Amino acid sequence: MDSKALIQAYMRTKKLTQYQQVAAELGFTKSHISSLTTGKVQLTDATAKKIAEEIGLDVEEVLLSLAAVRETDPEIKQAWYNILARYSKSTGTAVALAVAMFLTPSHGPDNTAHN
């Protein structure tokens, strides 16, 4: 789960329809929300923890997901995803893993039915 997915989960839970509402509730500027939702920046761990707690998500899973998303080295990124997969398996929560892997840009061609 990257920052955009976490912001969108926050919006769904809080029944918000505009990023401007999210910015006001979380004390962010509109440009910071824009940077978060375009993937230019990621939430800090402290802010991600606060949001996860507020909307009832597993804090540890969210923090592991963000660590994986933030990592730029492909081997270390994969290690984070492996840790997240083991954590998710042990707790029975695999939703964030699926979302994180789906929303995170890959370091090669996407595997599709066409390749």
TrEMBL record:
One of its GO terms (molecular function) is DNA binding. SMART domains: HTH_XRE (SM00530). Residues 7-62 form the HTH cro/C1-type domain. InterPro entries: Cro/C1-type_HTH (IPR001387), Lambda_DNA-bd_dom_sf (IPR010982). It holds the Pfam family HTH_3. This is Transcriptional regulator. It comes from Aeromonas veronii.
